Amino acid sequence: MKSILYRAVCGFVIGIGAVLPGVSGGILAISLGIYEKAMLAIGTLFRAFKQNIKYLLPIMIGGGIGVLLTSNVLNVLVSRYAGQLLSLFTGLVLGSLPGLYREVRRDVPKLQWKHIFAALLGLMFVLAFALGEASVTTNTQTANLNIPAALVAGAVLSVGTVIPGISSSFILVYLGLYPAVIAAIASVFDLATLVSSGLGAVFQRLGEMFLPLLALTGSFALVSILIIKIVNRVLARHHATAYAAVIGFVVGSVALILPRIAVSFTWAYPVFFAVGLALSYLEFRFKERLTDRKPLSAGEPAAEEETAES
Question: pTM of the entire structure?
């Protein structure tokens, strides 16, 4: 039960990060220690379907709740306290670096130049992505979420969720799709419409968004499967080098967030940063108690049951 609750909380945090511009869902999944197992569970879903679904379902439920609440209830909170939330996520992400370094050293006696090179490439990838964002003028004209736009949005969300260091929200903002995507997701649990117009209006709004949401979900799933196949192969064959690149992703992501925090810096930001570090440490200790330390291989089911469930 503790393991299920932990994965649901991880999914909730990733769901919030997926909606918040400037935060990478993949980086949060790595920081919370569920990235590799989740990728392997999805990539080998039908090899051990029951076991993999049992592992993924709490993450999916938590992620869905996080996205829906952020799109509705937490929307005002996120807009008013974005700096504090980014500070919290920064502490959470930085706190994961020791665990990532341990993954690099898990199969190698000492660091090699290729690991350092991979970390630098990961850092340069994130910074180059940010430079590309900065050179593009934001599309201020909000596009409607029709079927073609929903297909594009689903693919973008997939890339930002699976590949660490990429903020899909940023891409959607530049495409002018971000407000439309948030509105479509919010229609699933539209509290504002429920309060103002009643349950009938909620179902009417959901009916209008059904096909775009279906196209978005299908595009997200298809693109995710394609990318995850590549990710699993890289993690299985080049584990240490892949995690060295992930360290570069993490450092680059934090480097991008820090200027946004510095613009509106207040005394509360270090407090939230410290809370993020503390949560990261507690998460590490909690995970150590729950999980067995047996390394995963490409042929094993990703959803290895934690010792606490035995």
Answer: 0.67
